[in-house]
Amino acid sequence: MRQRLNFWVIGGDPRQMTLARSLAEDGHTVHTYALDRGGEPSLAADGLAGAAVADCVVLPLPAADGENLNAPLSSLRLPLAQVLDTLRPGQLLCAGMADARLVQAAEARGLTLRDYFAREELAVANAVPTSEGAIQIAMEELPITLHGSKALVVGYGRLGHVLARQLRGLGAAVSVAARNYTDLAWAQVWSYGVERSDQLSGWLCGYDLVINTVPAPVLGRAELADLKPGCLVIDLASKPGGVDFTAAAELGVKVIWALSLPGKTAPVTAGLAIKNTIYNILTELGV
Amino acid sequence: MRQRLNFWVIGGDPRQMTLARSLAEDGHTVHTYALDRGGEPSLAADGLAGAAVADCVVLPLPAADGENLNAPLSSLRLPLAQVLDTLRPGQLLCAGMADARLVQAAEARGLTLRDYFAREELAVANAVPTSEGAIQIAMEELPITLHGSKALVVGYGRLGHVLARQLRGLGAAVSVAARNYTDLAWAQVWSYGVERSDQLSGWLCGYDLVINTVPAPVLGRAELADLKPGCLVIDLASKPGGVDFTAAAELGVKVIWALSLPGKTAPVTAGLAIKNTIYNILTELGV
Amino acid sequence: MRQRLNFWVIGGDPRQMTLARSLAEDGHTVHTYALDRGGEPSLAADGLAGAAVADCVVLPLPAADGENLNAPLSSLRLPLAQVLDTLRPGQLLCAGMADARLVQAAEARGLTLRDYFAREELAVANAVPTSEGAIQIAMEELPITLHGSKALVVGYGRLGHVLARQLRGLGAAVSVAARNYTDLAWAQVWSYGVERSDQLSGWLCGYDLVINTVPAPVLGRAELADLKPGCLVIDLASKPGGVDFTAAAELGVKVIWALSLPGKTAPVTAGLAIKNTIYNILTELGV
Amino acid sequence: MRQRLNFWVIGGDPRQMTLARSLAEDGHTVHTYALDRGGEPSLAADGLAGAAVADCVVLPLPAADGENLNAPLSSLRLPLAQVLDTLRPGQLLCAGMADARLVQAAEARGLTLRDYFAREELAVANAVPTSEGAIQIAMEELPITLHGSKALVVGYGRLGHVLARQLRGLGAAVSVAARNYTDLAWAQVWSYGVERSDQLSGWLCGYDLVINTVPAPVLGRAELADLKPGCLVIDLASKPGGVDFTAAAELGVKVIWALSLPGKTAPVTAGLAIKNTIYNILTELGV
Q1: DSSP secondary structure, C13-70, as one string
Q2: What's the pTM value of the predicted model, to 2 decimals?
Q3: Which of A85, A118, A151 marks a domain boundary?
């Protein structure tokens, strides 16, 4: 990757502010647009004309808000198509959660589109602020310390691994619920208690905290009824979530459904993770 | 310690509520008084008369609010002297932070007074909710994750040990500032970075988070000026604290002075720790 | 899986002794054969005739020693074909490292062959005794404690993860060398130092211990020349290993090539891991 | 402490070799004597005459072997008195385990004697190689991995803390046996299982490994009879040890009594710890 590149960061939230600032600190030329309410002066300005010479144009995460650019820190309402029209064929466009419309629009204009949110290293890095955001919620809600509490992490993918470790790092007694033999073997290697995520009912009454990471209905009425009074449930699974919210309400189980934590609880960390991922993309492309 | 004792829990906050409930769950007879706004029915009621036959009378932490019993969950204003007058000579009275007046009053009435807050095992146990409360504050205030952050713990006593471990458990890069050779040796044994707490100035610019546990002026103007922009300072030291708050305000350093965290952030955990300490007292006395 | 099954454990080393004993402790009927020098009385005996009614026949790891059964604890030399001839079509045969000849022989006789060594959960479980065996070697060889040492783990697969964690658990400063972005992201999530395994030369001089897990030539002459005097190299990669042994000898670098550690250093743990894997196989087959 | 001092290192084992070498690497002038079989050329030589101008004379650990200097790496037999006679009044003499005779002899000659082995920071630092040496023994002796094993650490002083942490760092399930409430509170803070060291009998049958650090008879016949077959006992307590060795032999319990581990298993680490302690002594004396 070349050491002095020309970046345009267009639209986005505090993560893109961090991204732009950090790119500049690394010695690159950085222009921002539609980030004007970001709490500090735009690093560049005056229209999108200059974007046509950028080595890399960065769109936010998600890139689009309907037909418009996702630009919560700007008063501008920019159709995404209009942004793309300012670019030249062959330019590199990095976007987060690029939807079908954006893919098509980029292709039609001959742009090289890369979705940084689709890359595994970003998913790995984002597991950290997601986990820490969930822990913050648990600390705020529970009248006990996480230290000494009994916590269950449902699902043992990327996020489950980070959550289990951070919870134990605080001194919680952690169990992991998983389905396949390999995940269960890993849970034993890392010395966690083990539950079967397809046989949770009847095994839940000891926990003070249950955090779900599985985007499937794993905590239904039977499982929720099994929880002890005061047990907190945090659902980190994307829509439709993994908890039967209706049953929870009826049973008086407190459930907090927490989505998109990285951008909310640690925007600087999340922005730097996007930067690293874009650097990897550039390195792979030989830019 | 006998398995069925008669306890009176008089005054206090949610910690005493937990204490009373947990004593009852352990099979003891428990009466509460002046805890009537505790969010649940008093376990016993109707005047203090019965307290004269208690095996152990528990006063809150701190026991006194001026001349009165510390009873924030009650509409009663009870002079502490009046409470003591209901007791018999020889009875065991456990109180937290017993001041000179209470010591004298107990002695005058021939009561056996024990200050549970003065016991080291409670101080050890309380280090956990204090540490976790500080971590919660840091998570709420910082735009970065504690994971990957650089954190300095000033002072390496009980609280410093717990803080350093929990911060690292979350993935922070932790340094410890201490003065004497033994503490410095322990910091190395536990693989922390090491600073000299009497030579902090000039060594602080790398930290994202500084947590002070030393009740002495360790973070003065020179040290605060050395911090990088955005560094958060949390002061856990009891009055007068360890930070020059005037200088911090002038320098634009954000300082949060957080006192009495156990009762605030984890009253149930804190209440159970008091119970364990009282059990130890009873065991030692052969009750 | 049924709770009372009939197992035949035929041939093998102390791992199979453990397996047989533990199966019996779990309530199953267990017969062993060709394990007679195992240091304790065979749990069953007198020819292989009874094996034809076994619910599960277990062969060792590896199953074969040339054309014969691998049976280092027996004076018998049993052709593997002869063992299989005693079984009935449809019987379940669990073997470790089943080679082409065994696969063919089992198929010709209509046996249901499962290679337990090919299963990922066993590979995960075996990473633990391999890692611990390597740590034991390092402790024996080095005049320094692992605590406080600088250790590099080359390769960040299953074994690399366990090694890095155990080394840090002892207090070593651990770095991980990996190639792909996902592995590097994980190394950062777990707070290890990071090296690029394809660019090691020039970055090795600080390490006291280098443990290779990659079965490819990663530590060649240039890399070995970069090590500091006294640095210990442990190669855990299967043949042909990852170290240029000739160059190491010429450069005076001490290299220990340690293979098959689980069976050597922790045969009981390794035998129990085989048992668990066989249980999983039986459960999947609905036996 | 001044940056260029004149050291004489007289007598000793590989720890003193390391000490001498490391002092020289730090830029000091170093002379050794009676270390001639240390495997490398003495850094200095030819009689003790020059020692009279040393800023610091270092004797080994222990300093004396009867009336002579403890000098296992030398063919010389030097009466300690003769060594001291070469020194001038007021010179600083650092020795390990200085016995009454040495104290008296130093006083008689007006020497400033400091016993580095009596300092707490060295005791803290030495807990690490002792713990690691014990872990190495356990790895060598047990047919199971420490990971997943059940280990009991008897005594929760300096060594107990380090042992418990390193064992858990490898993945063992660790319990701590202690007596006083403060130690028990710490064991709970660090999430260890807890036993009462004065009530061990009847609570020992679950352990695979018991490591004693208490120099008092804690593992008598009743306790040893309670261990499960194959349980390994390691006694790290100095004489007379904490185990009833006769009973152990009769009961067939394997006990390994391991003393002076730092010098044996990690002489380089142990030597560097002595150096740091001597530096602290020099700093305190304003040398």
Answers
A1: -HHHHHHHHHHHHTT-EEEEES-TTSSS--SS-S-SGGGGG-SEEE--SS-EETTEE-
A2: 0.95
A3: A118
